[in-house]
Design goal:
Number of helices: 7
Radius of gyration: 23 Å
Number of domains: 2
Largest sheet: 4 strands, mixed
Distance between the termini: 48 Å
CATH architecture of the largest domain: Roll
Order of helices and strands: HHHHEEHEEEEHEEH
Structural class: alpha+beta
Length: 207
């Protein structure tokens, strides 16, 4: 049976898309992106109540949660999803990395380590554990400043999450320090942002 013919028997076909389109038409003349997001969210909720669980429905719960997560990004801030600096393992540029320090880093199970000054007002980059695998720290301890660092950018704690998404793309980094009042108060990762969109925790590593 041709695809179009099969889809035409879905009941109802594309009802939620029609409602979302209507929501867009109602607010597209304005500049308020939040109004658009809220209108579409209401349309999605209405469609979910009507069609999820209905035979032939073109919506499922996972798709709805992802759409809701994406559409609410502009309403949430980095501070809502960041990891506080008190829970972050970070190092300074003059710290000496030896075998004992490597064991300590492994104990924390962090693969990406921010390099900050003692006052936490600057970030010099991110140290990746994978870059340290082939170095024999038993023979020759090395200062952090002599190791390869991956550049990143600092983001404000009040930055909206839709803006954060674009900043991650521009920074080419999976980890960004978060600052408030010119002091780094935490970190945020691309995994944190993805979890906010999909509504589920990503089980991989500490960060």
């Amino acid at each position: 049976m041709p695809l179009q013919s099969r889809r035409s028997h879905q009941s109802p076909f594309g009802a939620w898309q029609v409602k979302c389109a209507a929501a867009f038409e109602s607010v597209r003349g304005g500049a308020d992106g939040s109004a658009f997001a809220m209108a579409v969210l209401q349309s999605i909720d209405d469609a979910r109540e009507e069609h999820i669980g209905h035979d032939g429905s073109d919506l499922d719960e996972d798709e709805v949660e992802i759409m809701r997560g994406a559409l609410t990004l502009s309403q949430k801030r980095v501070r809502d999803i960041m990891t506080s600096i008190s829970r972050v393992y970070w190092v300074t540029p003059d710290m000496l990395i030896d075998a004992d320090k490597i064991d300590e880093i492994k104990l924390h199970n962090w693969s990406r380590i921010p390099v900050l000054n003692p006052e936490r007002t600057e970030c010099y980059g991110v140290l990746l554990m994978k870059d340290l695998v082939d170095i024999d720290f038993d023979e020759q301890p090395v200062r952090v400043s002599e190791l390869p660092l991956h550049q990143t950018k600092i983001v404000g704690s009040m930055t909206a999450l839709d803006t954060l998404f674009r900043k991650f793309i521009g920074a080419h980094s999976h980890l960004m320090p978060v600052e408030r009042d010119d002091v780094i108060v935490g970190i945020v990762t691309i995994e944190d942002l993805i979890e906010e969109i999909i509504g589920h925790e990503i089980e991989d590593e500490s960060h």
